[in-house]
Every structure is written in structure tokens, then in C-alpha cells.
Amino acid sequence: MLFGKKKNKKSSNIAMMDSKVNEDFVEEKVTKIKDEDVELVMDNEEAISKKLSSASPLKKYKELGKIMFAMLKDVKNGTYPNMPWFTIATVAVALLYILNPMDLVPDFIPGVGYIDDLAVLSIGMGWIETDLHKYLDWRLAEEKEA
Fold first, then answer.
1. Which among 33, 101, 124, 135 could bridge 89 via Cys, Cβ 3.0 to 4.6 Å?
2. Minimal CA–CA distance to 68: which of 19, 136, 120?
3. pTM of the model
4. Buried (b) or exposed (e) across 27-44, using 16+ Cβ within 10 A?
């Protein structure tokens, strides 16, 4: 297991039809991520970015998606080596989940199709917020030096 269970974990359940997206669901997916899955995210950057841009409920995550892709690229090419695997795996799960049109609530269902995508993004971002801020601080410092 990549990480231990969190103590006193509050479950962020978001009910959707007959299914629930919660922290346990996302955590289970994160623990199963492999290097090949991260490569799959990188190979599908354009499709994921397009979905973030074109799906009305996901548009506010467009910039966040750009940051996550930049972070993965910097980790992959070794310019930012300080990223825990848990954070990389969480980003991969969130972006792969968005890419998948047939997830817990299929995206083509009007009004509710993106609720589960938003839930997975929100849960994941809550877990890695600190690492995202560290990465952005590092990027700003790098830009000042250049």
C-alpha cells in the first residue's frame, strides 16, 4: 500500500443515483495506480484538457488541470523530483476519471453526468492541496531565476 489509512477520516460522501463517490473509493483507485497509468494520463493530455474546457461543470478546473499536467511533466523529466508518489497517483486517478465517459454516473446524463467527476476532483485536490501549493511556489521561484 502506498500510504496508510488516515486516522479520524471524515468521509465526503456525495450520493448519486444508486452509487456513492467517497474518499474510500478514490483511495482504493489511488493505491492501484502504476507508472503505466501516469503515462496514459500524459498521452491523453489533449483529450482531458478538451473535456475540462468543454464540459460546463468542469470549466473551472481547466487551470487546475494545466497545473497538474505541468507538475506531472516536471516530475517525469526530473526537474521537480520532490513529489510524493501518493500525489502523482492522486493526480492520475482524478485525470483518468475525468477522461472516462462511462464512470459511476455516465457523463452524457444531463445535469448529473459530471457530479462524480467533480467529486473525485474535489476529494483528490483536498488530499494534495499542500503539494500543489509547494509545486506552484517552486515554479514561481524558477521563473524568477530565469
1. 33
2. 136
3. 0.78
4. bebbeebeeebbeebeeb
